[in-house]
Amino acid sequence: MNERPLLKSPLLLARKPWIGWAMFLTGITIFILLALNLVLKGPLLPFDKAVSDSWHQVAVEVSPTMRALTRGGWYLGNEVAVVVALIMGIYFIVKRFWMEFWMTVAGGVGAPLFFLATSHTFNRARPEFAIPIEPVVTQPSFPSGHAVIGVAVYGLLAYFLIQHNRSAFAKTAVILMAFAFILFIGFSRIFTGGHYPTDVLAGYALGLAWSGVAYTTIEVHYARRAELRL
What is the pTM of this model? Predict the structure, then answer.
């Protein structure tokens, strides 16, 4: 019996594309609602400020070691995610898994570009504090790019790894680990003062929407190509 590849798509989105479209509709709806709240200065803005200020005060008072650990979410949603996407991309080129390769490109390159275009559209200022914890970032705050990339890259990695794991326990562990990474990235960005809570929620929503439409489109495209060859 041939051993299954370490990374391979389970083709769930090709078999059940409604899942991807549901991801897109859910994500884009939540994002639009959060964007309207920002533009119209809705009721979540005071909530944003209150949570951001209270979490920042806690961050200032904790030990330097704890602050350094929580700051790790920056790297997990940025440099580490880029390395993960590069490794997956190289692996798929070597294996000639072109569908998975283009899905990785969509997650590792397409998602950041989509985020950049969106963030500059809204151009929200970052939270400001008298005692900043992390270096000042001038890039717009809404949505969180770390959250977008975290959902797109770690979600895709978990999706690929599910194919390799046979047991329900292993599949569940992979999914929970991906969720833990994504949630830690969002918590870190708020705790260290890099984003407001709705920035992170909007990033999650945009990442979900992008993942749904991009990955489903690619899988359906390759599935149809395979049918035409038969």
Answer: 0.90
